[in-house]
Amino acid sequence: MPHKRVAVTGANGHIGVQLIETLLLRDGVEPVAIVRSDRAALALHQRFGERLRVSVVDYGNADALRTAFDDATVCVHLVGIIRQTAHSTYEDAHERPCQAIVKAGQSLQHVVYLSILGVGDLHLSNNVCLRSRARAEEILRNSSISSSVVRVPMVLGPDDYASYALAKKAMASVRFEFRPSSLEQPIDSIDVVAALVKLVLDEPRRMTVELAGSESITRRELVKRAAKAMGRVPGMMIGLPMWLGYSIAKVLAFLPSPPVTRDMLEILNHDDAIDASSGAETIGISLTPLDETLERVLRR
């Protein structure tokens, strides 16, 4: 089998680590981890040892990225944020890295970009984060490098932040929640990694795919199902109006690093309800049932 070198940006995140673990098991595939801090590099070295080459790079620095790619033919780009601060802007997190990848990627034949559901939603056209994500997608689509964009909602996996937050909600005896009727369509991290691997190994395809879990349910119901998976009795969830959340975010916006922003609230409360089978069939994967995912990630 011909050798394929795959650069993974944001390799220290939960999806990145699972992707690298999977790629290391594939014959003829060499993942290369690209992170932005020595701390992240150390964590990967401790986990994978000499099996994995790690580069510490400013994602917006095309020259540094070019060196880190080192003849990689595929780049899986996993970098993104839903809350910007004075020190970490959406432009720095989304657009500048994509511009640098295009400029640095002379050896690249394919870029696989993990984006989020809600990009392109006309109801959220004023959301600064989603507009930034849309511009990042467009930078890749307009380049000479073939690009696949995969948009996903909440991703649930072992020991990740989303699963921890869901478990915390499921264990609370009383929980206040903004718009508990909001629709969630969480996807298993196993399925996201399977989709990324399929796109890495297949022939490059220019496409944008929306991928989500097999069920779209209210946040209230999701917390109940999570509690059941953990063997607990669901507590009381008290709904709060979104105007209150937006008012709080408006006040907090004066802080250098606000813990919550309007953009963040809009994304978290976006109704996720897509035809999950369409995206899965397009990529060529099967989806894990929601209850099976909850059992896997929350029983721990």
Outline type = globular
Q: What is the terminal separation in angstroms? A: 38 Å
Order of helices and strands: EHEHEHEHEHEEHEEEHEEHEHHHH
Proportion of residues in helical segments: 40-55%
CATH topology of the domain at 4-156 and 186-215 and 272-288: Rossmann fold
- The chain-level mean pLDDT equals 92
Give a written overview of the molecule.
This protein is 43% helix and 19% strand. The longest helix has 15 residues, at 90-104. The chain has helices at residues 14-24, 38-48, 62-69, 90-104, 128-141, 161-171, 189-201, 219-229, 242-252, 262-268, 276-283, 290-298; strands spanning 4-9, 29-35, 53-56, 74-77, 110-116, 146-152, 155-156, 174-178, 183-184, 187-188, 207-210, 217-218, 236-240. The protein starts with a strand and ends with a helix. The mean pLDDT is 92. The chain has 12 helices and 13 strands. It has 300 residues and is α/β, with parallel strands linked by helices. The protein has a domain at 4-156 and 186-215 and 272-288: NAD(P)-binding Rossmann-like Domain (Rossmann fold, 3-Layer(aba) Sandwich), CATH 3.40.50.720. Helix 1 crosses helix 7 (189-201) and helix 4 (90-104) runs parallel beside helix 5. Strands 3-2-1-4-5-6-11 form a 7-stranded parallel beta sheet, with helices on both faces. A two-stranded parallel sheet has the order 7-10. Strands 8-13 form a two-stranded parallel ribbon.
